[in-house]
């Protein structure tokens, strides 16, 4: 089955700095790569996603890059703010159905 | 339609008892997923349905776990003879199938937190 590895497990940055979280996957048939943000005690919520026919996607301060050859993708958050503090999960999906999640990155943005 | 609803939000039970969780997905979504999440971990896939058909079940899932989606709308997840290791947050999510924009985007419910004493 699919294996998703996410790094780092914890990340602490100063407000205004950038944060980068990386995920690698094993199944070359994977074609959909979402990122979820989960605040303490709340449900995971989609923040950005990318499909395999695109190399990069940007939405305001967040961006995702995908390297299908190397089977890795990354989440980039620029100009971080304290409200960006949360756990971030990458996931990998094929059209066949289920998403497989990484183990999460706890991001702390220090004011 | 206000999103994915789960009930109950919290369940405390004694070891050996059976519990059942219910999930009502977004009405236009034909896929429904069950995940389990423990502290410090990502959601772990349990099973998913497309309409009323259960298409995949995790090999890690014990025979004590069963899920149904009888009419392709709401779903139930039952855990029989609960064990302390079953304590977790049980998340339901729904999505549209296909390749069009928005397909396979999971919308999660708030979860049902199970505590087995």
How would the blueprint of this fold be written?
The complex is a heterodimer of chains A (111) and B (117).
Chain A: E1 4-7, E2 10-14, E3 19-25, E4 32-38, E5 45-51, E6 56-59, E7 62-67, E8 72-77, E9 86-93, E10 99-101, E11 105-110
Parallel strand pairs in A: 2-11
Antiparallel strand pairs in A: 1-3, 3-8, 4-5, 4-9, 6-7, 7-8, 9-10, 9-11
Chain B: E1 5-7, E2 10-13, E3 19-24, E4 31-37, E5 44-50, E6 53-57, E7 65-68, E8 75-79, E9 88-95, E10 107-108, E11 112-116
Parallel strand pairs in B: 2-11
Antiparallel strand pairs in B: 1-3, 3-8, 4-5, 4-9, 5-6, 7-8, 9-10, 9-11
What class would the helix/strand composition of chain A place it in? mainly beta
Assembly of the depicted chains: heterodimer
Low-confidence stretches of chain A: none
**Please, how many helices of chain A?**
0
> Rg of chain A from C-alpha positions?
13 Å
Biggest sheet descriptor of chain B: 7 strands, mixed
- Mean of all residue-level pLDDT scores of chain B: 92
Strand content of chain A: over 45%
Total beta strand runs of chain B = 11
Q: Kindly report the greatest chain-chain contact and the residue count on each side.
A: A-B, 22 and 26 residues
Distance separating the two termini of chain B: 35 Å
Secondary-structure element pattern of chain A, one letter each: EEEEEEEEEEE
Task: Give the overall average pLDDT of chain A.
Answer: 93
Alpha-beta classification of chain B: mainly beta
Q: How many beta-strand elements of chain A? A: 11
Question: Considering DSSP H and I runs of 4 or more, what fraction of the residues of chain A is helical?
Answer: under 10%
- Please outline the major beta sheet of chain A: 6 strands, mixed
End-to-end separation of chain A: 41 Å
């Amino acid at each position: 089955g699919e294996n998703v590895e996410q790094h780092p497990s914890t990340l602490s940055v100063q407000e205004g700095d950038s944060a980068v979280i990386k995920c690698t996957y094993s199944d070359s048939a994977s074609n959909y790569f979402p990122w979820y943000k989960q605040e303490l005690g709340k449900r995971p919520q989609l923040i950005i996603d990318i499909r395999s026919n695109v190399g990069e996607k940007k939405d305001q301060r967040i961006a995702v890059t995908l390297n299908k050859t190397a089977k890795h993708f990354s989440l980039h958050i620029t100009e971080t703010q304290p409200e960006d503090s949360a756990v971030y999960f990458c996931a990998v999906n094929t059209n066949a159905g289920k998403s497989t999640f990484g183990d999460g990155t706890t991001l702390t943005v220090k004011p | 339609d206000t999103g994915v609803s789960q009930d109950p939000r919290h369940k405390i039970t004694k070891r050996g008892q059976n519990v059942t969780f219910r999930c009502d997905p977004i009405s236009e979504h034909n896929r429904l997923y069950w995940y389990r999440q423990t502290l410090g971990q990502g959601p772990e896939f349990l099973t998913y349905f497309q309409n009323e058909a259960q298409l995949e079940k995790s090999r890690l899932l014990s025979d004590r776990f069963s899920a149904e989606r009888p009419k392709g709308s709401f779903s139930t997840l039952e855990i029989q003879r609960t064990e302390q290791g079953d304590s977790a947050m049980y998340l339901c999510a729904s999505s549209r199938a296909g390749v069009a924009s928005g397909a396979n985007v999971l919308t999660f419910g708030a979860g049902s937190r199970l505590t087995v004493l």
